[in-house]
Amino acid sequence: MTDLLKKRLQQRLGYDFRDPAQLDLALTHRSHGAHNNERLEFLGDSILNFIIGEALFRRFPEAREGQLSRLRSQMVKGETLAAIAREFEVGDCLLLGEGEMKSGGSRRDSILADTIEALIGGIYLESGFEVCAERVNAWYRERLDALSLASPAKDAKTRLQEFLQAHKLPLPEYNVVEVEGEAHAHRFTIECRVAPLKEAARARANSRRVAEKQAAAEVLEQLQKLELKPKRKG
């Protein structure tokens, strides 16, 4: 891993490690050797759950415990963490054993998710809870803003796909219309197009996946207003 890659990663994280060894440790998978990020991952997992739990507690004062637990699970699950890791291009910076490198470990969701937790643990140990919480909340801002108590467990892209399949319609097309900003702070404009609608829906976000979900949510809302009836089989 080059110094340039480390610098770019820290720009994306919005945090500069004072101790380069702490950053290296957070990025070291167990396949690389006995000195790895597993302990930092354990710590970061606990801290992440608390930070997101507190954010949800304050954001939804009327929510019941079960609702908060569901939303937190959605925010801290491996798929979400891996998506964040890809936004930060963490995979380019991982220290992996030879076998993991050859088998595509830098793209594996579980490894990417664990590394985000390890980075959280590393930031906490170096700078304390307040700084760590500020960074995590910044990473999650758009995802948290998109939440509501009425949100079903399935994301908008999944719900749109299921809606279209139920009506025997073609699946949606997602296209990148524009990418703005520096490499460490891209903003994506995504277009979602479906057969029943004349106009495509557009959304902008710092993450391509988040923008796709926002565009899908808008399309789904428009389709539901059309009151299409599901087609029966046979």
The profile of the biggest β sheet is:
3 strands, antiparallel
Q: Helical proportion?
A: 55-70%
Which class best fits the helix and strand makeup? mainly alpha
Radius of gyration: 20 Å
Instruction: Give the helix tally.
Output: 9
H/E element order:
HHHHHHHHEEEH
Low-confidence stretches: none
Q: Beta-sheet strand percentage?
A: 5-15%
Strand order of the largest sheet: 1-2-3
Number of strands: 3
Could you tell me how far the N terminus lies from the C terminus, measured between alpha carbons in angstroms? 57 Å
What is the residue-averaged pLDDT?
89
Shape: globular
Q: What's the structural blueprint in terms of helices and strands?
A:
Elements: H1 3-13, H2 20-26, H3 38-59, H4 65-76, H5 78-87, H6 98-102, H7 109-145, H8 156-166, E1 173-180, E2 187-193, E3 201-205, H9 208-225
Antiparallel strand pairs: 1-2, 2-3
Explained architecture:
There is one protein chain. The protein is mainly alpha-helical and 234 residues long. The protein has helices at 3-13, 20-26, 38-59, 65-76, 78-87, 98-102, 109-145, 156-166, 208-225, and strands at residues 173-180, 187-193, 201-205. It has a 3-stranded antiparallel beta sheet with strand order 1-2-3, with helices on one face. Helix 3 (38-59) runs parallel beside helix 7. The longest helix is centred in the middle third of the chain and has 37 residues, at 109-145.
Task: Name the descriptors.
3 strands; 234 residues; three-stranded antiparallel beta sheet; mainly alpha
